Amino acid sequence: MTRAAKLLTELVGTFLFLTVIALSANAGTLAPLAIGAGLMAMVYMGGHVSGAHYNPAVTFGVLLRRKIGAADAALYWVAQLLGAGLAFSFGYLVSGHSGGIHPGAKVNVLSALAVEFAFTAALVIVVLNVAATRATQGNSFYGLAIGITIAAAVFVGGPISGGAYNPAVGLGATFGSALFAAGGWSDAWIYVAGPLLGAVFGAGVHWLQVAGSERATEPPEGQPSPGAPAPVPEGRES
Q1: Domains defined along the chain, listed by start
Q2: Coil, strand or helix: which one is 104?
Q3: What's the pTM value of the predicted model, to 2 decimals?
Q4: pLDDT tens digits for 134-181?
């Protein structure tokens, strides 16, 4: 796949997934299911093209495991953050609401940070195992596993930290709140630091899980996640 195709997929996939998040209040108590289902759909949509990260922390974890090059990772981050800004702006324009993202009432900042760390680590471990590991190459469950992970994390961790597990969500929601509702940026660092530290931990766990077993067969840097279906040859798309 070309770099342009990968970046377009990251931009569009992030925009659509984060639009679900921006409008998820309409789903009430089922919001975590809507968010998990939205991510699952977008992962299946873009996994064979870009790896379907839609999350700077996931990209960071994949970079640490040397499954993507540094230049591509930086461009993925740009596409993801742009998609996030567009998603939360769109969410406000169609709903009239832009609540931002914050830890729960009376939640200690360290508790919020710990939840963002733990569940982002879980997400990165799952992504790396189901979509970037030779032993699971070609599976059809990678999108389901990733979507369920996020749904579970939002159900149990959302009331504590706000449930971002994604710097693009934290910065996009904060940007939308600041732009449309005079919100502040004081909590934004939680949704950057927690997920990025979680990604480091998750990448480390994955390295320990597969150390020595894949050294000779790891995919070249910059290739789509091997858990995704093989790309359709040029000229054969239906």
Answers
A1: 3-210 (1.20.1080.10)
A2: coil
A3: 0.90
A4: 999 999 999 999 999 999 999 999 999 999 999 999 999 999 999 999
